[in-house]
Amino acid sequence: MPKAKSNKNAGRRARPWTRTSGASSKPVQVEFKPAPNPAPEKVVEMIDPDYEGNQPLAILEEPGAIEKLGPLKRYLMEARRYPILTREQESEAARLVREKGDASAAQKLVLSNLRLVVKIAIEYQRHWTDLFDLVQEGNIGLIQAVKKFDPYRNIRFSTYASFWIRAYILKFLMENYRLVKIGKTQAQRRLFFNLKKERERLESLGFKPTSSLLAQNLLASEQEVNDMQMRMAAPEESLDTPVTQDGKQTLGQTLPDENPSLVEKLADSEFQELMGKKLKQFREILAAEKAEKELFIFDHRLLAENPQTLKELGEKFGISRERIRQLEVRVMKRLKEYLKRELPDFEDFDFLSS
User: What does each C-alpha distance from 30 to 20, 57, 66, 142, 211 come to in angstroms?
Assistant: First the structure.
């Protein structure tokens, strides 16, 4: 029997070849030629020993036409074998899953919605190169939807499942788009998926997509838009990447150290020591004046690690919370004036409220 043409002839017309069956000597004419999408019931596993790669082949609508199947088409053809359930069938299967833990009913719900997963995954294909990664994550979300679905609510299972499918696909994209996660909050995730689309929309309308305009349209701050644009534009690079020809200096060694220098640490230590000394002297002034309430507020509210509330102090001295607040403002004002006199070269007293 003549051998079939190798894979290099796939996709173009070739010479017909014949084969004979054991029951009849009449030859069957078969041609290699492209054809429309095959019907699922006509898919067969036919492996030709001389065909390179042993790829699955499909018998098409026209007799004698065969075609090599890609992985996506093969997956969709397999998924079409399972019919889409009606609303009543969904409800019945979901009740069996919820009440009896019926595994076969759960499998029926999953298999009947495989095409829904592919449809949703295609929407996010621009963000990921391998569509099947998204399909796998979406299938996990579909299984989770079967576990969580309440059949007694007036909602279709496919509608409910679409939210779980999208959630798992989005989670996968956010965790794997970069080695360092770039979307940890809801606002960052919204920017990640809509920033490029909004920029293209504005450009098509003739507007310049400035950060302020993007921030206004996407309900985010201008700083968040700038940060996300920088994260998405900058490629990942290892800190161990050599930056010199001899390879002795790495990228990490050229980055500035964000930790405070020795001089800054020493200055902070001296300032803390000096401030502690001045606060102690101010307390001695309050004690000498026998200002009991002001001294107690200074110790147990202004300097305390766990300050007492206005209500607690008011109950202690038998006065209102408003009066305690007024005394606190007066003590703060005196403290600020005292520090300005004692430390004339230091002007930053923003840590003291007015």
Answer: 11, 13, 8, 41, 61
Domain that holds residue 66: 7-70
Asked whether the beta carbons of 157 and 143 are under 8 A apart, the reply is no
- 125 and 198 assigned to the same domain: no
Specify the amino acid at residue 182: I
User: Which residues, in sequence order, are bridge partners of residue 242?
Assistant: 250
End position of a domain, from candidates 70, 102, 124 = 70
What single letter denotes the amino acid at residue 349? F
Per-residue pLDDT tens digits for 154-190: 889 989 999 999 989 988 887 776 655 565 666 677 7
> Among candidates 50, 47, 65, which has minimal Cα distance to 11?
65
pLDDT digits (tens, 9 = 90+) for 50-71: 333 334 434 444 555 555 667 7
Instruction: Read off the pLDDT of residues 312-333 as tens digits, 9 standing for 90 and up.
Output: 888 888 999 899 899 888 888 8
23, 40, 70: which is the final residue of a domain?
70
Total structural domains within the chain: 4
